Amino acid sequence: MNIARASIEKPLYTWLIILISLFGGIWGFTSLGRLEDPAFTIKQAVIVTQYPGADAEQVALEVSEPLESAIQKMGEVDKITSINQPGRSIIEVEIQSTYDGTELPAIWTELRAKVGDAARGLPTGVSQPYVNDSFGDVFGLFYAVTSEGFSDAEKHELATFLRRELLTVNGVADVDIAGLPEEAIFVEPDLALSVNQNVSMQAIAEAIATADSVKDSGLVRANDRATAILTAEGSDSVSEIAGLSVGTQGRVINLSDMAGVHRGRVVDPELMVRFNGVEAFTLGVAGLATENIVEVGKRVDAKMAELDQDIPFGVEILPIYQQHVVVEEASNAFLVNLAMSVAIVVAVLALFMGWRAAVVVGSTLLLTVVGTLLFMAIFSIEMERISLGALIIAMGMLVDNAIVVAEGMQISMQRGKTSHDAAQDAASKTQIPLLGATIIGIMAFAGIGLSPDATGEFLFSLFAVIGISLLLSWILALTVTPLLGHYFFKQGKEGDGDAYGGFMFRAYGATLRAALKLRWLVVVGLVGVTVVCFVGFASVKQQFFPNSNTPLFFVHYKLPQGTPISLTSDHLKTVEAWLAERDDVVSATTFVGQGATRFMLTYSAEKANPSYGHMIIRTASLEDIPALQADLEAFGQARFPEGEFRTKRLVFGPGGGDPIQARFSGNDPKVLRELAAEAKRRMEAASDNLIGVRTNWREQELAVLPIYATNRAQTAGVTRDDIADMLLFSTDGQRGGVFRERERLIPIYVRRPADGPYSIVDQVVFSAQAQKFMPIEQMVDGFEYRVQNTLVHRRDRVPTITVGADIPPDLTAAQVHGEIRSVIEEMPLPPGYSMAWGGEFESSRDAQESLGKQLPLSLLIMVLISVLLFNAVRQPVIIWLLVPMSVNGVVIGLLGTGLPFTFTALLGLLSLSGMLIKNGIVLVEEIDLVRAEGFPLREAIVQASVSRLRPVMLAAVTTILGMAPLLSDAFFVSMAVTIMGGLAFATILTLVAAPVFYLIFFGRGEPQAA
User: In whole angstroms, what is the distance from residue 437 CA to residue 924 CA?
Assistant: First the structure.
């Protein structure tokens, strides 16, 4: 039985479909999970290893190299990079993108085993490597907590309280605290007294180390019972530590008699945080991946409101980034855009087909959208940026099926057929072509969604939502549309007027006849326009991801390598004061020493470096950002010429890296620096559009090297370690133990008094053999300065230096890269050295390669479906000849608006190709059907094309106008222009080029007269 006819004869089943779609869609919308970006596994782990006392090159050679060699044996590893600093190795391991999140736990277990085995062979003094596989956790609810007037201990207690309470919130996975003041207990012996009493620093450190230790004391067993013996209570206050006794050479001396003891902040902390110039710490809340982040965010807000009465007065919890608010706003904006798109579709249909057709097609469209939401909920596809985008992309194709069926049914009923016969007639001719065209439209996105790598994981919801919505639109077009047409369309009388006798149809028919007569001239014109547009495509700006529509931007500030964190902090205080006077700044959060906690999936924080500062600046609106950025950069660069001051917009997609990067790899650091310097010179000479050209190895630093007097020192019983310990005591301080304050472990440092002048040659070192202090100048043959690399980067076990740069905001990375590409690639490289491009060029190339691997298979399936649909070759060839020409309208649209061709524009182009093929299939199928009725070729072409004019035009107009609400959306604007411009031109291709090609392919032997 014909589906369309059955939907009218058995309306109960059709009404069930309508009610399930409607109410199921409402349920689906309310129960769908909501995220900002698709749940995406960051397949990276970080291995941190400490090697105190070693320089960066020693760390690279003695720590990173053995660990990287062991890690490289894992077949799952894609890339290994490392940053080697004095005393610390940071290795990042990236797993191949074809492994999904379910396989990662086993991979991380193997990684830990490899690292653990390799760690046994590391030099003495190297810490146990720490493997962090939660590197990719996203703390989307990100707050700054200010507590002016509170002590550092109270701030720690407050942070502990907040973290404990927020972890009880349903749906919260983790809470991260960062930026708390780093405290320590400082024991500062009077050197004159220590030398006079012959009390070594080692003796003081040993006394402190056991002052508050916890140790098993055993059990007492008696009368069948066992009673535990607790460790004797230790010194649990600063005053008690000061009262400790130090035993040396048979004497006992009170620590307070020879040393000052106080509690204070560490001089050079890892991180300092301020919010609007006020000292703060950050609170990051991560939701469970299975939870709706909007609901989690609301529960967190409710918990914070509940805790408000328990939080002391003066404590403020201020938002830096609230993912749940961003997601909710995006969902609401989607609803508005959806309502506007449906309203536009209904209005256009009412204008060209009458209000009855508008109700029929508009209702089908609405049911298709809400039905898609139902299936998204069933298959656990969250509402996020990509799935919402998929619904918007699908909007352009969803309406086609219903328009074709409704238009065919309406025309048949106007000619006197009953609704049952009209539905059967309309559906029987189009249901198979529409199904084939729908599947082809879905397959256009299959290469993206079914890709086995990271691209497929990130964009799977795009393919799934488009597939669901298009198949559902076909089903509803054959069921709901006929039933509603049965209710709304009026039956006319046989012979009543010509349905295609209107002016528009007559004008199109006359134009088409002229085009068929001048077919070769039309083909030449189409080919010429296509060639010109393909050439013009080179002038279209290329951009991987557009700027975000969240009113945030970043400041990156870098002073010369080796600058203390205190100076970096002071400089940023000046920037904070400048921002405080601006009315367009809502908030400014400052991070000194490293980047922020990962608060969104695409944010990438800078690694720890005392000379680095970072700011997250929020404005009232997106329009405020460009002027503020320009003013701020001008101020920062003028005020701090010694530093590197730059701002950066928040973008959709991966961020954090330089848009322009060139990497040089080889073994000799000196040669690498020479190559980087040469590349920098060439870049700056080739383009004026590079900003802040720099290398990731940064500046070299001076280091002081004591020349160990082997004979004298060994005779005196002073080792190299003794000299190192003495120098550590006289500078940063030796760690002597920990001070336990509830759950906190506060380090205790033994150091020289911080105030007063300092000279290395005035220091004394204790000889355990002689049991007395000796001047250091007798133990060394002087000191020398050495220049050393303090940031040594490696990539896949090879030292690699990267030359990076920023670009002006009005240019794209592709434009600037084109200006410098040839001069860099022409650089002569020594044997054993190589160059590779990074930055946005590499990201874009990798993404395109990933898509390119899958698209051939999708294209093959699409071609096979079109061939099987017609059971012929010529018809599919006609349709596929139109596809390259679809670029014409895209180029005209993007060049006319000045917008770049972004990743979303690529998706729009794929969608456009699907629409064009769909319209082409329906038109060519109609020509075949009319020819089968016995009409002459040209008359069949004209008659079939005229009958398809209204569906094709309406589908194009409704889609183009339906995209209009997206022109104000930063993420989708380039996609909207791509579809709008491309579809406008594609409509001409379908209505003119397809008939012309049909005549050329099937008109051999036909008389030349029109």
Answer: 12
Torsion region of 681: left, alpha or beta (phi above 0 gives left; psi -120 to 50 gives alpha)? alpha
List the structure tokens of 376: 């998204």
Tell me the Ramachandran region of residue 745: left when phi exceeds 0, alpha when psi lies from -120 to 50, beta otherwise: beta
pLDDT tens digits for 770-787?
888 888 888 988 888 889
198 vs 506: CA distance, rounded Å:
112
Question: For helices 937-962 and 973-988, what crossing angle results, to 10°?
Answer: 160
Distance CA 451, CA 462 (A): 12
Report whether pLDDT(448) > 70.
Answer: yes
Based on the fold, state whether residues 415 and 523 are members of the same structural domain.
Answer: no
Q: Which of 74, 102, 135 is the last residue of a domain?
A: 135
| Contact between residue 992 and residue 869 where contact means Cβ atoms under 8 Å apart | no
Alpha helix (H) residue ranges in 238-384:
238-242, 293-307, 323-353, 355-378
Q: Are strands 183-189 and 744-750 parallel, antiparallel or unpaired?
A: parallel
Considering only CA atoms, which of 685, 695, 676, 648 is closest in space to residue 819?
685
* Mean pLDDT of the region 697-709: 91
Q: Specify if 703 maps to a domain.
A: no
Q: Cα separation of 91 and 131, whole Å?
A: 9
Percent of the chain past pLDDT 70, that is, above it, reads: 93
pLDDT of residue 1009: 42
Mean pLDDT of the chain: 86
H or E element that contains 998: helix 994-1002
Residue 1005 has pLDDT above 60, yes or no: no
* Domain contains 398: yes
pLDDT at residue 656 in the model: 54
CA dist 498 and 224 (Å) reads 108
Domain final residue, candidates 74, 101, 135? 135
- Measured CA to CA in angstroms, residue 946 lies from 45, 422, 428, 939 at distances of 62, 19, 19, 10
Residues 510 and 413 in one domain: no
Q: What is the pLDDT of residue 142?
A: 95
Q: Which position has the higher pLDDT, 230 or 543?
A: 543
> How many whole angstroms separate alpha carbon 381 and alpha carbon 170?
21
> What is the Cα Rg of the chain in Å?
36
Q: If DSSP codes are grouped into helix, strand and coil, which group holds residue 751?
A: coil
How many domains does the chain contain in total? 3
pLDDT for 967: 81
Query: CB neighbours (10 Å) of residue 581?
Result: 7
Whether 365 is in a domain gets the answer yes
Picking from 175, 177, 159, 178, the residue whose alpha carbon sits closest to that of residue 167 is 175
What pLDDT, on a 0 to 100 scale, did the predictor assign at position 1010? 39
pLDDT at 572 over 70: yes
- Cα distance between residue 1002 and residue 927, in whole Å: 11
Q: In which domain, by residue range, is 121 found?
A: 43-135
Q: pTM (2 decimals)?
A: 0.83
Model pLDDT, residue 354: 83
3-state helix, strand, coil in the chain (%, to 5): 55, 20, 30
Packing angle between helix 903-932 and helix 874-882, nearest 10 degrees? 140
Strand 130-132 and strand 772-775: the pairing is unpaired
Greater pLDDT, 369 or 206: 369
Task: Give the bridge partners for 284, in sequence order.
Answer: 142, 176
Same domain, 436 and 365: yes
DSSP 8-state class, residue 199 = -
Single out the residue of 365, 477, 432 nearest to residue 14, CA to CA: 477
d(CA 339, CA 335): 6
Same domain (yes/no): 373, 409: yes
E-only strand ranges, 762-844: 764-767, 772-775, 780-788, 792-795, 798-806, 834-838
Q: Looking at the structure, tell me whether residues 476 and 515 fall in a common domain.
A: no
CATH classification of the domain holding 397 = 1.20.1640.10
pLDDT of residue 272: 96
The pLDDT, as a whole number, for residue 227 is: 67
